[in-house]
Design goal:
The structure holds three protein chains of three kinds. By secondary structure, chain A is an alpha/beta fold. Chain A is built from 13 helices and 17 strands. Chain B is an alpha+beta fold. Chain B has helices spanning about 40-45, 50-55, 80, 95, and strands at about 30-35, 90. Chain C has a single domain, classed as Pyruvate-ferredoxin oxidoreductase, PFOR, domain III (Pyruvate-ferredoxin Oxidoreductase, domain 3, 3-Layer(aba) Sandwich), CATH 3.40.920. In chain C, about 35% of the residues lie in helices and about 20% in strands. Chain C contains six helices and seven strands; from the N terminus they run βαβββαββααααβ. The longest helix of chain C is centred in the N-terminal third of the chain and has 14 residues, at about 20-30. Chain C is globular. Chain C starts with a strand and ends with a strand. The chains are: A alpha/beta, B alpha+beta, C alpha/beta. At the B-C interface, loops of B face loops of C.
């Protein structure tokens, strides 16, 4: 059934349809309406879940870690400084290999204080061992929440579903809410490979030694490094798993189709704009404008950011003359993380061809309005002017 | 004119009205002070000033009697809530502005 | 009347219901067969009484640009005092429509090149049995009268659905009365 609702409600309905069993979250703008909606759904008896109020984001994820360790399907959500306050537990959830799903309603981080959108919060959590997926509209929010539980439980790695604060979280647009029985067929109940059991006590995530060891039963056990190696190995395997789950979802629901990225007018493009989230859709309008003036522009929306589908991204980009990356985050002192990742992908995979030039732009920090005219001018300039300083990023909408 | 001329490389705010513009138009309820019930006004001496202390926007003066700057007062009602003698009451803004063209 | 693409900007005060009104119209628009609908509130300081606005974009194709409307076809104002406070009319297209909740008559305004519609939505909504200040259903009646964009019965049904259990019939009645009591100026 198609409804018109906010992005936060789309996320809440995705969690409901996924039959999450434990929800623990601490309200923070712009995530708050998502957790309010979930608490209403649980209170009304529409979802058989424990909704556990907590006093902080650190505790919210700690509750999810405990619940997931006991075999429950667990969900949380946060934004900005709330996500950063979780940081220690974020690493923990990944290292403990717990299939928690978390919505990150993207917001700039303080200081200075801001409640508005950019991507610095989740990008700064890139290296925590979580899968990160960025979505562009409400349909992708609800669908990705459902797919994420399936993927997380298959590879035993937690997932952040990242969507733009306000621009998506508080915007109303139409989307289809899939029927419960079809979601049930796609996403079976979670069966934990190991769940805490008072009858068979065990201590989880205990201290490891620098080297491997024999345990109490005489079995050869991993050291820290083997456990971390397996996380990397399974992260890389998650690329295939994500692809296969995407295919199954497409067959059942007729939507989606590419777990890694979406391409718009890229086949013959001389210039490809690359971005994540709602901005990547905004760029489609700009590409149309530029094509009308004879500049062949395409747009790539990156969905799966970790694990990074580097070879597939490189294959999709390598034929272009120039790649222009638009980011709402920055690795201060260098450039945007996505820009570095794109360069790295092309370095490995563009070996026998001339590699495209890669330019980075930063924009929209702390909710700075992104005007179509500004995007148009920046993209046009990036397509038509020789690259003078490839190490310098461009700033769009800056008023200093 | 450039924001560089601001001189700070951080967000910075100093005491004083108006950092967010003339916020008085936001008001739905207006605090009205009755000098007959106000402690400093009745005693004609500096005393109490709880309203001045609690006003989150710093728009009540520490004077006899205290005055309220309606250009900036957002009508939060904290002064009325905290006033020990209930000398401040909140009235509908529309009852004051009615008849305004 | 059919449109390829239409941009409607709604101005109100926090708590007045501009976003709810735009949401109701968004739903009716989608049900009228426009697949592209996006209602994008612009959030500043979230507080009752503060000026707020929201952008409703309607199209025959999917909406990709979620930035605030800068060149509206229609502007709806839920409180006429906002006209003195902020640049409400900014960017209104020549021949664009302006709908204002105001106690003043048409003659009190002079907006060249706009199609102006006025109604005392505040007073009329009270007559429909709503408490003073509840204007978001009423303004939809004025909007419908001024624009002839959507089927009025469809709008009424969406108002009743939105206010289910919260004075649904009074809100629908306010929209009907405002529809009847809106005066529209020519070009």
């Amino acid at each position: 059934m198609h409804i018109i609702e906010s992005g936060n409600v789309a996320a809440a309905l995705g969690v409901k349809l996924s039959r999450a069993q434990v929800i623990a979250a601490y309200p923070i703008t712009p995530q708050t309406p998502l957790t309010e909606k979930l608490s209403e759904i649980v209170e009304a008896g529409e979802l058989d879940a424990q909704y556990i109020p907590v006093e902080s984001e650190h505790s919210a994820l700690a509750v999810c870690i405990a619940a997931s360790s006991a075999g429950a399907r667990a969900f949380t959500a946060t934004s900005a400084n709330g996500l950063l306050y979780m940081h220690e537990q974020i690493h923990w959830a990944a290292g403990a290999r717990l299939p928690i799903v978390m919505c990150v309603v993207n917001r700039g981080v303080g200081a200075p204080w801001t409640v508005w959108n950019d991507h610095q919060d989740s990008i700064s959590q890139r290296d925590t061992g979580w899968i990160q997926i960025y979505v562009n509209d409400h349909q992708q929010i609800i669908d990705t929440v459902i797919k994420s539980f399936r993927l997380a439980e298959e590879v035993m790695i937690p997932i952040m579903v990242c969507y733009d604060g306000y621009l998506l979280s508080h915007t109303y647009m139409p989307f289809d809410v899939p029927e419960q029985d079809r979601v049930d067929a796609f996403l079976p109940p979670y069966k934990a490979p190991y769940a805490l059991d008072p009858e068979n006590p065990a201590n989880l995530n205990t201290v490891t030694l620098p080297d491997i060891r024999f345990d109490a039963q005489g079995r050869l056990a991993h050291g820290y490094m083997e456990i971390r190696y397996l996380l990397q190995e399974d992260m890389r395997k998650a690329l295939d798993a994500a692809s296969s789950i995407e295919r199954q979802f497409f067959e059942m629901f007729g939507r989606g189709g590419d777990a890694f990225f979406e391409l718009y007018c890229c086949e013959d493009a001389d210039y490809i704009a690359v971005s994540m989230g709602s901005l990547s859709y905004h760029l489609r309008d700009v590409a149309d404008l530029l094509r009308a003036s004879g500049i062949r522009v395409g747009v790539m929306s990156v969905h799966l950011y970790r694990p990074f589908p580097a070879s597939m991204i490189a294959q999709a980009l390598v034929h272009a003359r120039r790649i222009i990356v638009f980011e709402k985050a920055l690795s201060y002192g260098y450039e945007g993380a996505l820009c570095s990742d794109i360069k790295s992908a092309l370095f490995h995979h563009g070996h026998n061809q001339a590699r495209p030039e890669v330019l980075g732009h930063v924009l929209g920090l702390g909710g700075r309005e992104i005007r179509t005219e500004d995007l148009h001018e920046a993209l046009k300039h990036s397509c038509t002017t020789p690259v003078a300083h490839p190490d310098e990023i461009g700033w769009i909408g800056l008023k200093i | 004119m450039s924001t560089r001329d601001y001189g700070w490389s951080t967000s910075h705010s100093e005491p004083g009205p108006g950092d967010a513009g003339k916020t008085g138009s936001w008001r739905v309820l207006r605090p009205v002070l009755d000098p007959g019930a106000c402690i400093p006004a009745k005693r004609n001496a500096p005393a109490c000033f709880i309203c001045w202390l609690y006003c989150p926007d710093g728009i009540i003066t520490r004077s006899i009697p205290p005055t309220i700057d309606y250009e900036y007062c957002k009508g939060c009602g904290i002064c009325a809530e905290e006033c020990p003698t209930k000398a401040i009451i909140m009235v509908e803004e529309s009852s004051v502005t009615k008849g305004k063209p | 009347m059919e449109h390829e693409h239409l941009e409607i900007r709604w101005h109100g005060r926090g708590g007045q219901g501009a976003i709810t009104a735009a949401k109701i119209v968004a739903k009716a628009t989608f049900e009228s067969g426009y697949p592209g609908v996006a209602m994008v509130p612009t959030f500043g300081t979230e507080r009752r009484g503060a000026p707020v606005f929201t952008s409703l974009k309607v199209s025959k194709t999917k909406i990709y640009d979620l930035s605030p409307i800068s060149r509206p076809d229609i502007i709806v104002v839920l409180d006429h005092l906002l006209l003195e406070e902020t640049d409400i009319l900014h960017g209104l297209k020549p021949g664009g429509i302006l709908v204002i909740n105001t106690p003043k008559p048409l003659e009190a305004y002079n907006f060249d090149g706009t199609r102006l519609a006025v109604a005392d939505v505040t007073a009329v909504s009270c007559r429909a049995g709503l408490p003073e200040g509840m204007v978001n259903a009423g303004i939809i009646g004025s909007f419908a009268r001024a624009t002839d964009f959507l089927d009025f019965a469809l709008l009424i049904r969406n108002i009743e659905e939105e206010f289910q259990g919260r004075r649904a019939s009074e809100n629908a009645q306010a929209a009907r009365l405002c529809y009847e009591n809106t005066t529209v100026m020519g070009y």
